[in-house]
Amino acid sequence: MLAEAMSRALEHDAGSTGESRILRLEVPAGDLDPLRWLGAQAVRPRSFWEGREDGIAVAAVGAADVVESDGPADDASLRDRLALLRSRVAGARYYGGLRFDPGAHPGEEWGQFGGYRFVLPRFELCRRGDETVLACNLILPRDADKAREVLEEVEGLSLPGDVPGHGDSLPIPVSRADKPDLEGWRENVGSALAAFAAGGMDKVVLARRVEFGFEEEIDAVVLMHNLRAATPDCFHFLVEPEEGAAFVGASPERLFRREGREISSEAVAGTRPRGASAAGDAELRDELLGSAKDQAEHSFVRISIRKSLGALCGDLEVEDKASEMKLARGRHLVSRIRGTLGESVTDAEVLAALHPTPAVGGYPKDRALEEIRALEPFDRGWYAGPVGWFGSGDAEFAVGIRSGLVRGGTLALYSGAGIVVGSTPEGEWAEIEQKISDFTKVFGLDPEEHDTGS
After folding, report:
1. What is the number of alpha carbons within 13 Å of residue 161 lying toward its C-beta?
2. Choosing from 153, 203, 376, 433, which is the catalytic residue?
3. Catalytic site residue 203?
4. Tens digit of pLDDT for each residue in 215-259?
5. Domain membership flag for residue 31
6. Is 262 a catalytic residue?
């Protein structure tokens, strides 16, 4: 059915010299599961996106169009390359993300991702509530000039069949390497605390990279199946630009969502685990809400987002009191922000203004980035960068935290902790162990086994 619709559209535009436009075709897809469908496809790139609240899950393969660069995502380049979306094609989205720090030297393991990369998928399996559709995006008249090649792409799609999914086992790690190790972490936190005492910086988010080794390759789609089931109320994403490297995550944190001119964001900082009992859980909640240290850490994020969006919005509403964001295995302080963007403000400008928030960088932003570059012994790559999508009338980006890079038989997990006056190396180490537990538990590991760096 989809192949027939594509054939008619390509034949209609054969020989046309008109202005480039997107044509989106959709057909019903029955009860196909997006992730199982994705696991059956051999075509790259592959991606998966699921919003935190909207009930929409999208698995995508192939590329109708790619917007990418090794440099920073400046407004002009994204604006010009995404001009096709001005035609307001319902449902058409460019999915992708950006490096955390385009000014840092890129590590070899992140080479396939670039400074930023956004893909208009060739094919998508979209589940919207009870409806599932198979979609194709065409760039006309360009794709009409290679109609045979495009039609071969749809013929190459596979039905799921006996494809691994949720509940399928993942291998057990055989090695673990922490970078930095506990001694190096103590030195980094000590350096940050000394910088606070010297003045010029109030908060810095320092990260760790924990790499697990396996005796067999990790299937990123199976990992996403299991991670998704373990992390409700999160954004779920998988970005696999080429075979052999996939960025996978379950982020609780929205960077921004735009619907027309209306925009929403949130300040998220301050962390506690969930309790083993109702009484213990309530005690940890009250401890977080009453913590002067966590409230101070949170306030830097709220102040920064208020300032960044205030310069772009005609009006802005910011919650002045943090509330609890409750997750399956943890909780955070959250303050929600809503506003109306100026008529000429673009999504790329919003990204440039907001990222990195003090929730993943620090405060002030530039000074914190200098400290991160000086102290962290690895490249963050896309970890803690914006991950999401642009549409014609809307956009949504999560902060790429609670995430990992799958490369063959290795999984590198990245997580950070906000360092402020009063932080201790041991306390922040334990916080990161709790944060990576979403991943480690789907592999059957107990994070407490490594809470002292052993």
Report:
1. 5
2. 203
3. yes
4. 999 999 999 999 999 999 999 999 999 999 999 999 999 999 999
5. yes
6. no
